[in-house]
Amino acid sequence: MNEITINVKNLIKEYKLYEKPSDRIKEALKKNSSYHKDFRAVDDISFQVKKGETVGIIGKNGAGKSTLLKMITGVLKPTSGSIQLSGNVSALLELGAGFDAEKNGIDNIYLNGRINGLSKQEIDDSLQSVLDFADIGDFVYQPIKTYSSGMLVRLAFAAAVNVKPEILIVDEALSVGDVRFQQKCYRKIREFKKNGTVLFVSHDTGAIASFCDWVIWLDDGKIYKIGEPGEIIEEYLSFMRYDIKNDEKMLVDTSGLDDEVAENEDNTCVLSFGNQSAQFVKISLRNSEGKLITQVSSKQVICIDMELMTRDAIEFPILGFNLKDVLGNELVVTNNIFEKIKIPAMNANQTYHYQWKFEFPQLHAGDYLLDVALAEGTYQNHEQIHFVTDALVIKCVDDRMYQEGRGKIVPKDIRLINMK
Questions:
Q1: Beta pairing class for 330-335 and 317-325
Q2: Phi-psi region for residue 79, left (φ > 0), alpha (ψ -120 to 50) or beta?
Q3: In 10 A of CB 223, how many CB atoms?
């Protein structure tokens, strides 16, 4: 299928920004006077989407994703450039957009259908399937202003797919639904993408990787990169979680850490505590070949790369880490004593570079957080030197390989790379 269904050329959307409302009036009254600053929300974007393709759009907040989709759907008019669409479009943009808050669910189903070109008979014929999919019970007879965000997205998605579009556009709205309904929607999208075209905006990179044939990465209103999902998402996660100019995470500066909060180069704060006789200076996550990564798969051999700077000598160092889910539940707690790996004493005023290689446990796809810690003494009696909370964020991707060993670390080794 080589038919082009979406053709975007040199698309620009500019807004005039005024410091105060009166400046808008002054500019209207005074010819040749400017009281505004021009802001480009979308800056010279071009791309084509073929029939049957599903394209993901990612980018940080304010990158221009929603503005782009609103222009494609006709909600906003471009400042310049062109958009050509082949086929009818159904969009799920801002939650409840296009609905009448005073009308009930059924009235809004008919309203949405007529706006999208369906006849009353066509809506009559499909009404029951929409109600079954939305599954909001008797609330369908109540004004939608009484709906929760979850009920609203159920009705909105059911109505959007009901018009049998050739192009489906979804912008983050599914994130407010419950897990069961999200899965129901994703199954519907998989069914739809067999013959239709999908533009899919989401901060859920796992969903992007699962659904999309290729990905557009927007940054500051421009296309930063286009490519295959795995490659783009890996770089995007690095961009969002690390300093893009540095392949390692800076936890503290070399002047020492006296406060309880360490600050990264990208101004992200992480909580830390301890007596500070040594400090983690840099921490990164790498694969078995030493390449910086931010996402892993179950059973993959990975490496925590750590650089430590000592102030005092540490006779009996204990190096460890905790792996947690996003709710803070500890899934793995380990250290070199648990793993029966001896770490030699550390001298004062030196920098030590360690690599802890291990097999990532069998876990569900999702985000996980890693604490790192250095202590001194024995397991029963020790003093915390430097404990850094949420030092790394790791995305586990679903590789469909369900093996034994869930929640269990298989140690490989801990190596001292060098010391200065």
A1: antiparallel
A2: alpha
A3: 19
